[in-house]
Design goal:
Helix content is 62%, strand content 4%. By secondary structure, it is mostly helical. The structure holds protoporphyrin IX containing FE (2 copies).
Length: 239
Amino acid sequence: MGSYPLKLNAGTARYGRVQVWELPIRITHWVTAASVVTLFVTGFFITYPVATSTGEPFNQFLMGRFRQVHFAAGYALLFSFLLRGYWFFAGNKYSRSGVPLVWRKSWWKALYGQIVEYMQKVRGPVTLGHNSLAGASYFLLVGGLGLAQIATGFALYGETNPGGFWDTTFGWVIPLMGGPFRTHMWHHFFAWGFLIFVILHLYIILFDSVRYKDGLISSMFSGDKFYEDGDIDNDDWVS
Ligand code: HEM
Ligand code: HEM
């Protein structure tokens, strides 16, 4: 570990390349990202319906279409989460770096180290997987909010078919939340959490990719990240 000066002239640094993100991680990242953006946009059209649309009424199914796209994206999010959950167990060690391993002392040490690292002018220690702070934000703000949206969303969706699959699977959420109206309001409230996440996420990945010069953004396409001497051993809190 230990810190060393920020390399302003990256040309003098010696870089290696390693595959960090396996294909399922990259696929689920982009499916999750695309479905969340679609759900957010179509969701707010459900909140504020386009009351007057022009043209012949019998050609129109505008708000119905918004709901249909919302539900299709809801299914995409659900399947993406199922695959990502499975890959937590089946994937390489970096696929577990997105989860706060709070029961391990080494995770708390890494968290403290990361906070200190962000406040300093020096580069390092650098992790190859998600750093512990980033992992906590994915787990809580995407995993937690996503599960809350899936549970409340599919419960509301199931209301149109009482006794059907979704009503049976998630119908219990509605009384738990205090009835259909409150479930609906929670679903709306949680939606705003994603906006906060996406703003922070986009800022931080840009910040990190400039600071660490590790090819962070392209890594979500290619799977590969770049490292300098000394970066490679800092992921010892995940296994
Ligand atoms: C242009 C848009 C985006 C880009 C370039 C991007 C890029 C990235 C990168 C580089 C990472 C790895 C960062 C790290 O190691 O800490 C990451 C992780 C992640 N991003 Fe994004 N992201 C984008 C949009 C989104 C959106 C809209 C969401 C969902 C709301 C999202 C959710 C996540 C999640 C959940 C992870 C953790 C992945 C995992 O462990 O499976 N991203 N993203
Ligand atoms: C990122 C995830 C999601 C976001 C951001 C989101 C957002 C929203 C928003 C903002 C609304 C409008 C609520 C209102 O009237 O104010 C809505 C409605 C709805 N969403 Fe989602 N949603 C998500 C996931 C899901 C999922 C997975 C389903 C499952 C099928 C779902 C099903 C529904 C249903 C059924 C409604 C209509 C509720 C009603 O008519 O009362 N949503 N969503």
